[in-house]
Amino acid sequence: MNVPEWWYLVLSAVLFSLGALGLLIRRNPLVMFMCVELMLNAVNLTFVTFSRSLNDIGGQVVVFFVLVVAAAEVTVGLGIIVSILRRKPGTTADDLSLLKG
Amino acid sequence: MLSAVWLIPALPLLGALLLLVFGRKLGEPWSGVLATLMVAGSFVAGVVTFLGLLDRPAEERQFLFHVFDWLPVGGFNVDIGFLVDPLSMTMVLFVTGVGALIHLYSIGYMHGDRGYPRFFLYLNLFAFSMLMLVLGDNLLVTFLGWEGVGACSYFLISFWFEKMPNAVAGKKAFVTNRIGDWGYMLGMFLTFTTLGSITYFAKDGSGFLQHASGLTGVTATAIALLLFVGAAGKSAQLPLYVWLPDAMAGPTPVSALIHAATMVTSGVYLMVRVSPVLAQSYHWAPQVIAWIGAITALFAATVAVSQRDIKKVLAYSTVSQLGYMFLAVGSGAYVAAIFHMVTHAFFKALLFLGSGSVIHGMHDEQDMRFMGALRKLMPITASTFIVGWLAIAGVPPFAGFWSKDEILLSAWGNNKALWAIGLVTALLTAYYMSRQVFMVFFGEPRWDQAHHVAGEAEQSAAAVDDERTDVAHGVAVDEHPAPTPHESPWTMWVPLVVLAVLAVLGGGLNLPFNHDVSFLANWLEPVVHATEVVPDVATATKVGLAVVAIIAALAGIALAAAVYLKQRVRAVEPELLLHAYHYDDALAAFFGGPGEALAEGTAMADKLVIDGAVNGAGTLVRAGGSRLRVVQTGYVRNYALGIAGGAVLALGWFLVRAGL
Amino acid sequence: MTAALLFAQVEKVATPKLDWAATAPLLILCGAALLLLLISSLTTSRPARGTYAVITVLASAFAIGTAGVLWARVTDAERGAFTTAAGALTVDGFSVFFIVVISLGIALSALLADDYLRRENLDGPELYVLMLLSGAGGIVMAMANDLIVVFLGLETLSIALYVMAGFNRRRAESRESAMKYFVLGAFSSAFLLYGIAFIYGATGSTNLGDIAGFLNANTLEHTGLLLGGFALLLVGFGFKASAVPFHVWTPDVYQGAPTPVTAFMASASKAAAFAALLRVFVSTFAEYRLDWQPLIWGIAVLTLVVGSVLAIVQTDVKRMMAYSSISHAGFILVGVQAATAQGVSAALFYVLSYTFMIVGTFGVATLVSGKGDEHHGLEAYRGLSRRRPGLALTFTVFLLAQAGVPLTSGFLAKFYVIGAAVDAHSYALALIAMLSSVVSAFLYLRIVVAMYMTDEEGAEPGPRVRVPLGAGVALGLAVAFTVVVGILPQQVVHWADRAIPVVLASGR
User: Fold this and answer.
1) How far apart are CA B300 and CA B288, in angstroms?
2) CB-based contact, C374 to chain B, within 8 Å
3) What single string gives the DSSP state of each residue in C455-488?
4) Which residues in C237-256 are b (16+ Cβ under 10 Å) and which e?
5) Of A12, B304, B377, C15, most Cβ neighbours within 10 A?
């Protein structure tokens, strides 16, 4: 079956938007962070699609970089989230509003 | 000899640096002496340079002194350099001369102040900036001095930082001046883009004033008016004058030096300097300047009529006199503007220093209603003050008469209505100044009644001043008997005497009788010959106008005498002045009733409208800020929404661009 | 047999040529980071006070030194700019300029951090390690000749910064700022990455040289993908540069983060963002200038206005300075918007002078805040001129420079940026920029007045302020630069003029 290129693009756009929406809607920091991961992977899909259609290997190489970066983000992000949750379990993103104005 | 020009700004700068490092060690009075000597030295250097310039034939009287390349702009450098020509030397001489006298005066006036060395540090820094302003050979160096004098003014107004009103007044000066600077900078950028240079004159002929004739009317008008916005801010013209009366919160020598003699005239200097651009602009552009000047002159004069604070009268008077100068500039009478600037520096500095001497002698009393009959106790101050009064009132042969007469003459040549406004202003000037002199130096001594009158004063409109007075008096009267006024020390009265002599003789700088005695006009001729508008008026008319002006001045004085000295007059010759008494009653009724109401009304309008506009702009910004602040909720998800929203907007913009 | 075959194949793998001299600044910074980790894990006793800071400063100084050598090389008429690492990094005057700026940011912030960490009982090499690595990331961003390398640099910069923001983990504000910065940073970098994907799809490459070549050679029939990519890239860069409306994190994070870290964020991190913005938009997408210029225009206006207006209503000095740094970003954007050589060099001059001003400003805030990093209100500054006249004077210089008062570098920075805008016929923008400087003058003045207003009744004197050696050196340097360049800007302007970014094809 030959799936047209733009289907992939639309799918990745939808995934990206879902991720963005999720971050806006969800309150649990962990889930918010997972939404960012979703966004990054949606971009990966875009890269691979373009890579295929342009017949250029570069786009697929990018995906590896992105994966590494995402992994690094996870390490640091989880650290930050855990350090907050450890002080006050059950903290949501909305509980952090000490700084404002 | 001309190369001595670098010493002129260098000496005050050196003084400021020395005071910065050794100020505390020098203490009182040596830091004051040092500062005074530096400015006096600067004056000597100015005289030397002046003589060097005088040595040259008239058409070669221009000398460019390059200090160093400052900053690269576009393909070339803006340098720090000095332009020595008759205009800048005139400014230098009176800035340093009057400046040195005021420095000397401050040695005595600031006696015992905690921040004595700091005060002189600022004063020297101010002199340096002012000299950079007038000597700079391009708009940017002038702007440097422009900002410098503004900053020093701000520091000096707020000199006693502990006093809240001072800090507020300083702030207001700073903010209004920023608005003016904004116009200046725009004018400067526009000059640069259209003429490719901001240097006034260059050796290779690339200075923008040298090819100003190539400007189109639109550009020239825009540049001239933008620079005028800057000038109006610095020289306290409508509607940007608000800061000047408030600035009187600063020490009196500061009021004399900065807010009367030098800094506030820099706007006039700027307009004269760029007169070639003004000459290229549309006909209505100079008219705008003339009208704003005339209206400011009249407006401020009416306000001055109802002031009670001795310094406030002089402050409004300064605004009014500056209006005269702009009236002259707008009428193309640049020589008259500079002439009046110089004579005004003499007599207004004299008046301010005199008022400072009074305040000093009265132990910090500033309300004229609690003065009176001071001429017996302070003879030198009184006699010099009277000279200043006659000079500003326009009584011949004192200095003010000659310069004011020339301005009125040029106004006549320009537009009869402007002349009429000028004449009314002259009358009012004579009136309010006489009122001040009579209230302070003549009549009954009232300084011991201050305590009684203070109660009534609370009902008066000038709430802020009065409250302060009340407090001061409450303390003074309860603990001590009312202090007797006394004459000031020699460091204070010597400058008064020198300035008084100048105020008498200053008119000799430019006598209208024939070409040979018009010294200032001849001297400035190489600078303004291309742009000066010579009013086409017959000699008989000139004489007639002068006579009318004298009559106006005398009428103003007579009115004031009738109103404020009436008892005294009646006591001497009651029969003779019976009619005058009725007349006087009407006048008193008018000036006490509707007239005063009018004057108070303008004062109120000043407080409400103009102050309101300045404060209102501030409030608006703050209110806007408070509204906007709500957006910054502190919730990370809202922030993310902001970013996503921004992204959507940006995407939307580009998709529209891409034609989707 | 198979092994031999495999070997033969391996030999054929072409490794990209790396110009070691050109990457030396990066290697020095990363090497110093590793060295610090090594020292702290191999030594049992605590090293002498300030060792870590000294090593960090030395490393930055070395980086600047090697940058100086590079500068001579790239500005040499015959050799000029070049790329290295298979076209991934450009070495031109622009890169070198930012190597210097970012290294300065590291060095000055490290000097501030030295005493701060001891004061807050956080002593250790970690903050310096992160600072060095983060700075290296910023340099990669500035040198990048490939969008993916820009992304990698940005992430290196950011991930280290997330940790740094939360470094003072005992303070709730610090933890909160780390969390906010992290979530929003990751969010915005996803946008950036998506933008890169769009550009890749539209032009077939992520290499800036190839993209520029492609855009110059071809006229796109459908520009939607490309322009969409612009929008998303702008989100990413705008976020790092704290341009409105992507600035939302700035006040909170600047306020919450440990003050030396704030200094680093405001200097090095912002510089890196502008480096990327300038190289990618002004140089690479020069062909599509008319499409992105209006958007930058709008963003610049918003940034100028929001920054200065919101700054005025603040009472916390650190937060006030955060907003003021937003309005500075607006000024730099004015230079970017001009999209001319003059605009770029004006922006570069601004970035450099701003680095010193802002590090100095937050440096003073570090000292005044006292133990616990708590006293940031305006009242902490009241009467500072009595307690610490030198420090008050220093702070006054920084504030006046930020307000754009002549004879400070801040005035010239504003002058050049506005001059560039006027020259590019963006009169309205120049007007707004000037107005915003009028408005913000007020806020700097407020602090100055507070410092010099003394002995107000009922007001208790603020906390005692100590000026430790490291911070003293940093503040001294910053003041010296601000004043000297304000009077004699020639050399710096000359550098900025020669640091216009060059876009080179990858040469593959």
Assistant:
1) 18
2) no
3) --TTPPP-------HHHHHHHHHHHHHHHHHHH-
4) bbbbbbbbbbbbbbbbbbbb
5) B304
Q: Which residue has the higher pLDDT, C487 or C139?
A: C139
Rounded average pLDDT over B335-354? 89
Please give the DSSP secondary-structure letter assigned to residue B516. G
Return d(Cα B382, Cα B443) in angstroms, integer: 13
Q: Give the confidence band of B479 by pLDDT, cuts at 50, 70, 90.
A: very low
Amino acid C386 reads R
From chain A, the residues in CB contact with C88 under 8 A are none
Do the beta carbons of residue B512 and residue B518 sit within 8 Å?
yes
> Which subunits sit against C, judged by 3+ Cβ pairs under 8 A?
A, B
d(CA C292, nearest CA chain B) in Å:
8
Indicate whether this complex's ipTM tops 0.90: yes
Nearest to C431 by CA among B344, B573, B182: B182
Structure tokens at C126: 């970690």
In the predicted structure, residue A23 carries a pLDDT above the cut 70: yes
Tens-digit pLDDT profile for residues C139-181 = 999 999 999 999 999 999 999 999 999 998 888 889 999 999 9
DSSP 8-state assignment for residue B77: E
B178 touches C: beta carbon within 8 Å = yes
Helical spans, DSSP H, in C384-426: 384-387, 389-403, 409-423
Chains that touch B (3 or more CB pairs under 8 A): A, C
pTM listed for this prediction: 0.81
User: Which tokens is B279 given?
Assistant: 């000459």
Instruction: Spell out the domain ranges in chain C.
Output: 19-456+465-497
Q: Which residues of B touch C309 (CB under 8 A)?
A: 621, 624-625, 628
Residues C439, B645: C-beta atoms closer than 8 Å: no
Task: With H, G, I as helix, E, B as strand and everything else as coil, classify residue B2.
Answer: helix
Secondary structure of C325-351 in HEC code, one letter for each residue: HHHHHHHHHHHHHHCCHHHHHHHHHHH
Residues of chain A contacting residue C176, judged by C-beta atoms under 8 Å apart: 84, 96, 98-99
Distance (Å, whole) CA B390 – CA B553: 9
